[in-house]
């Protein structure tokens, strides 16, 4: 298991939905949203969220809300199998705010570089893509796929445009002379510096239903065995649940791993092993290793992609963090069952 940063996990969660849209799995929905003690909403176009100087309409809010509600529902069932509606609603609203902040963080950063979702090439590309999806599914199939996923064509178009803006922004920032370094010699220097680390880990995952404290004890026992002289690779084979880790370990820079993992890895000296590092996913025992120049040169393109992506999303993250997010009054008053 590659332990992506929390920021990248959030991005992936939103991107996964956009990807489904890109494959044509979204759509026209029938909504008769009702305010508490108020009239029916007149249209999807009504503002639902204020995101910095931007506004997000109800269609977008509903799309994220219902998708995240489906994703998180199983985590909010009590021992009797009943859904803890209020807690689920709070968690979903938090996820919606994070996802929408991320989208508008991309647009805000792009606007700083003169790129918008209304640029002619971005609009044309979105129209071309949506037309291709419609042709593939047919009119009724397209509408049905959209409806099954709480999507309207307006939101589909918006998300495809944001995706196009992101691609255009990335190209601008990584071009020669751009903000993000792309030159070979400069990148090699970065890869060989302390901006990159190489580690192996022993990972004890907190699987659903497992006793976290028991996993903590196992992780601490693993640390004790290592301190007692057992080879780290032997302990990996015996205990680790990170079955995707390459034999040479992970090479990474800031922003690629979850915060706890990253902090612990960069704090180690070459040859040092951490204690049991706890994250939301489980426990990590981390060995920092010296980087190998042969690996760096032979995996240059892979490391280049890692570095540029990490820097790019760190810039979006920083821009998004400047955006406050608040619900419109009518959305704040909507009960969970009224969002449908």
Short summary of the structure?
The chain is built from 13 helices and seven strands.
Please describe what this structure looks like.
The chain has helices at 6-22, 58-72, 85-112, 120-137, 139-148, 153-174, 184-192, 212-227, 232-239, 259-267, 293-298, 300-320, 329-333; strands at 47-51, 54-57, 196-205, 250-253, 277-278, 282-289, 325-327. It has 340 residues and is an alpha+beta fold. A 4-stranded antiparallel β-sheet has the order 4-3-6-5, sandwiched between helices. Strands 2-1-7 form a 3-stranded antiparallel β-sheet. The longest helix has 28 residues, at 85-112. The protein is globular and about 65 Å long. Residues 1-43 have low confidence and may be disordered.
Helix content: 40-55%
The gross shape turns out to be globular
Instruction: Count all strands and give the number.
Output: 7
Secondary-structure element series: HEEHHHHHHEHHEHEEHHEH
Name some characteristics of this structure.
single chain, 340 residues, alpha+beta, four-stranded antiparallel β-sheet, three-stranded antiparallel β-sheet, 13 helices, globular
Please give the structural blueprint.
Layout: H1 6-22, E1 47-51, E2 54-57, H2 58-72, H3 85-112, H4 120-137, H5 139-148, H6 153-174, H7 184-192, E3 196-205, H8 212-227, H9 232-239, E4 250-253, H10 259-267, E5 277-278, E6 282-289, H11 293-298, H12 300-320, E7 325-327, H13 329-333
Antiparallel strand pairs: 1-2, 1-7, 3-4, 3-6, 5-6
Helix pairs in contact: 1-3, 2-3, 3-6, 3-12, 4-5, 4-6
